[in-house]
Amino acid sequence: MKTPLLQFTEKGIYCQQANVYLDPWKKVDNALITHGHADHSRWGHKKYITQHDNVPIIKHRLGAIEATGVNYNEKIIINNVTFSFHPAGHIPGSSQIRVAHKGDVWVFTGDYKLHPDGLSVPYEPVKCNSFITECTFGLPAFKWRPQQEVFNDINEWWKTNKAEGKTSVLFGYSLGKAQRLIKNLDTSIGTIYTHAAVENLNEVIRPHFSLPDTVRITADTDKKAIAGNIIIAPPSAHGTPWLRRFAPFVTATASGWMAFRGARRRRAVDRGFVLSDHCDWNELLTAIKETGCEKVITTHGYTDVFSKYLQTLGYDARTEQTQYEGENAETNEENEVTS
């Protein structure tokens, strides 16, 4: 039986012909990395290859690593296998990875979304025979509203809070979601203040992507100056002494999980905005159709439901277990809280 071009192993997604792994979850010699979230870019590999905008991000998060950057659509050949990185639209520096050998073409999406966010390089469909896709929100119930409508709601919420003399606190994970929020806020309302974990990544991302001005919160920041403005902070800051000193404030979370009834209550926030950096149900189906693929492998998310539905559409679809966690991992990884 012919060995598939990409295999799912205990260390990660493996290309035997080239002896490289894609987003491996255990230590390997050669790792191709789709983006900077912790479940996809892990510490301990000998060599990293990623899209060049992602290099400073993973170095910031992982420390002194040997990382090589390549441009989108640039081809690299390893032992007669051709690899290239293509925009995933997920967060700044995110990619899909195309793998081709002897006419067999695979695409590994990592995490991705089809709707432009005004910050990340927009997703581009890549033709292939086999498509490895996340399905974090792979249920028909997930259907995202247009981004501008969501930000109209967020900005109106901020205006209302300011008029009532309260500070707005908006939670979003420090890599990707926080910058998307900052990019699309109406700065005519007031000043954007940031938690240190967010601002550290703003400084890494700013040389490559345009962001509005923000103000880092430090121990010397005057609470009176912040009043009525907006704070962007990671979810881990919720309920901490760091945050309580800025009372009175109103809290909100921006996440795809806010589409679930009760999610806002479980996270103990005053408001929830449905805003995800992943595909909804229709985007997943559109992405698969646009690749022209015959085979689909579903990874993290609602894998069984989604793959079974794809089978009814005529795709050769199956699931594979990985250690990727989608938006759960991106929320849970935030652990940098400044006292």
From TrEMBL:
SUPFAM superfamilies: Metallo-hydrolase/oxidoreductase (SSF56281)
Keyword Ligase: yes
Source superkingdom: Bacteria
Keywords recorded for this protein, A-Z: Ligase
Keyword flag Ligase: yes
One MF annotation (Gene Ontology) recorded for this entry: ligase activity
Gene3D superfamilies cross-referenced by the UniProt entry: Ribonuclease Z/Hydroxyacylglutathione hydrolase-like
Protein name: DNA ligase-associated DEXH box helicase
Organism of this sequence: Neptunitalea lumnitzerae
